[in-house]
Specification:
By secondary structure, the chain is mainly alpha-helical. It has one domain. The protein contains 4 helices and 2 strands, in the order ααββαα. Strands 1-2 form a two-stranded antiparallel ribbon. The longest helix is centred in the middle third of the chain and has 31 residues. The chain is elongated and about 65 Å long. The chain starts with a helix and ends with a helix.
Length: 116
């Protein structure tokens, strides 16, 4: 597991990377996007760490409830956590992409809805 210092540096690097991608948002939308960008960066770093852990230890493990019970194969908690975090990361990236696609095309779904 990386140190807090290296994790923070990786998060900051990812914030910069995402900031460059979404920097053409208008100021109001960019202010809203900042929280999503920060959260996406945190999730991306955690996902990278979990990817390394899964590559090293695998998706499955032998698990034993007690010495009296035969061990069985189960999904490692890291694999379960990866799936949850990845879903959250994809949701945030989709939200950011929706924000930028509305800006790029000048298309406003809310205005379309009001005009119906």
């Amino acid at each position: 597991m990386p140190s807090k210092k290296s994790r923070k540096a990786a998060e900051e690097q990812e914030i910069v990377r995402l900031g460059e991608i979404y920097n053409n948002l208008p100021p109001r939308e960019l202010a809203l996007a900042q929280g999503l960008i920060i959260q996406a960066a945190r999730l991306r770093v955690q996902l990278d760490e979990l990817t390394d852990d899964i590559a090293k230890h695998g998706l499955l493990e032998l698990f034993r409830q007690s010495d009296k019970v035969e061990p069985y194969t189960r999904e490692r908690p890291a694999a379960q956590l990866f799936a949850k975090l990845d879903k959250n990361y994809q949701t945030i990236i989709n939200q950011l992409n929706d924000m930028i696609s509305n800006v790029d095309t000048g298309h406003d779904d809310l205005a379309d809805f009001r005009n119906e």
